Amino acid sequence: QVQLVESGGRLVQAGGSLRLSCAASGRTFSSYVFGWFRRAPGKEREFVAAISWSGSSTHYSDSAKGRFTISRDNAKNTVYLQMNNLQPEDTATYYCAGGAEAPRDYWGQGTQVTVSS
Q1: DSSP 8-state secondary structure symbol assigned to residue 100
Q2: How much is the average pLDDT of 49-61?
Q3: What letter does residue 54 receive in the DSSP assignment?
Q4: How much of the chain exceeds pLDDT 90, in percent?
Q5: What φ, ψ does residue 62 adopt, rounded to 5°?
Q6: CA–CA dist 102, 35 (Å, integer)
Q7: What was the pLDDT predicted at 28?
């Protein structure tokens, strides 16, 4: 069993930056794939970024490319999402997810990011 706890979300002005963290429990952290997803009010959940177990491979949505960076520290059992140049359309609840083959088996409770214009 893996438990995920996100943190770092808050209110920020457009153009600002935030770093989200996802702290994971469990001995299988270093072998899992992790990802970040988000859900804006009234919209479906959407993929933001994912990272392989080693950190050597990353994937981003078109909206995240060039602005967001996903990373992981296996020694700290933590996954990060650095978000730069935030825009009002980035306002959403951000979720961390992990799994053995894809980031889909375990989910955190989410952290709220609000970007004001």
Answers
A1: S
A2: 96
A3: S
A4: 92
A5: -60, -35
A6: 8
A7: 80
- Residue 98: partners with Cβ closer than 8 Å, 6 or more residues away: 2, 4, 24, 29, 32, 33, 34, 35, 79, 105, 106
CA distances from 40 to 37, 47, 95, 111 (A): 10, 12, 11, 12
3 state SS of 35: strand
Helix extents (H) in 1-117? none
Nearest to 92 by CA among 47, 27, 59, 62: 47
CA 8 to CA 6: how far, in whole Å? 7
pLDDT score, position 23:
96
Return d(Cα 51, Cα 58) in angstroms, integer.
Answer: 4
Pairing verdict, β 11-13 and 111-116: parallel
